What does this fold into?
Amino acid sequence: MLLQNFTLLYVEDDEDMQTYMNSLLCDEVKQLYQAIDGEEGLQLYKDKKPDIILSDISMPKMSGLKMSQAIKELDKHQPILLLSAFEEVESLKEAINIGINGFIAKPIVDINKLLDMLEDIASALQNQLDAKKFKIQQQKVQDQFRLLASVFANSQEGILITDKDNRIIDVNSACLKLTGYTREEVLGNDPRLYSSDKHPPEFYKKMWQSLKKMGHWNGEIWNRKKSGEIYSERLSIDTVTNNKGELQHYVAVFYDMTYIKKHEAELEYIAYNDALTQLPNRLLLHDRMQQALSNARRSEKILAVCYLDLDGFKPVNDSFGHKAGDMVLIEVARRLRNSMRSGDTTARIGGDEFILLMTNFASIPELKKVLDRILMSISQPYVFADEIEEKINSISVSIGVTTFPADDGEADILLRHADQAMYIAKQQGKNQYHFFENIDTCSKEAV
It folds into this structure.
């Protein structure tokens, strides 16, 4: 019975009637409250807010009519049933004007009639509750739709929706902006419209396997804009099913990774290159030396590691300032690059120290030609007319050289040997190169 879902307030001054109705109703309702007169009934109503009120009309202190009138003023929709005698005609007329929901004659002859009337009221209340819940639920659904529509329209990420046959049925403005297509150009098309042809069939096969098995796929993909530009995007695809688990839609959310890729490349460049000269730094040099040594062991060609330290650089900083010193370092880097062969590495490892990594020499004389060219280039005057009026003629370079396989060591050992040879070059007068003396061959090459 629906009545068991609701609370009831019973107001009656007759103790025998109270006892009888209590035994009748306590198991029929969710909660039974009892009062002995209208005043107590009104207070109980205010405290407990019962769903249904059943009250006698004639009671001391405050009658059932007065109580009902006070309650209806608080809530005109409150269901109230009154117990009345047929001779209380005027009271019945007044009760009708107040808005009482029904009457039961006293004494109660047919208890089932009372229960039926209470059940009818409970049914009406349940319908009201159901309608209210439905309205609230409907409002929640509408709010969710509005929220989703707002997210769809205003998202900075591209959103694309297809039907179960993978035909585009909707896209948001971000999708159109990112890809360059108009809505008319994409609706009804297969998302293959965006394909860059950079991925093998196996890539898409795995994507569809994941969607069918897991209902989701997420990854990085290369797609093509309307302009023909191929770009990287982060893509997430989810399947949407109905309450029977049947596929209805695919929803794809993506964003352009071009900026992120560019930023990652910039960070990687900063990590591996000198900020001032843009030359490789010690980290990148180490990687290239490992690779060059591996290649040299296979090719049996000569590999040269040269440690360069500028001569006369400190006076430039002292006389013209650090800005001029930086300009000299940048120009030295440019001259070194121009003097080197394609495929060789010029690195700055700090201050005025540089490393040259050169490979595939057939002979030492061939290497010396490059070193002579470097000595000549670095010792030329430095002219910065817009910044410094005077020419800078004090710069030259001391070079320490070691070669593989004559010096058969790992990268760190070769660098240390080249550094030792560079100090000998400085001791011997600067502006020259000196070959590291290999202990095994006891040979010495120097200018």
Remarks:
- The chain has a mean pLDDT of 90.
- The chain has three domains: 2-130, 155-261, 273-435.
- DSSP finds 14 helices and 15 strands in the chain.
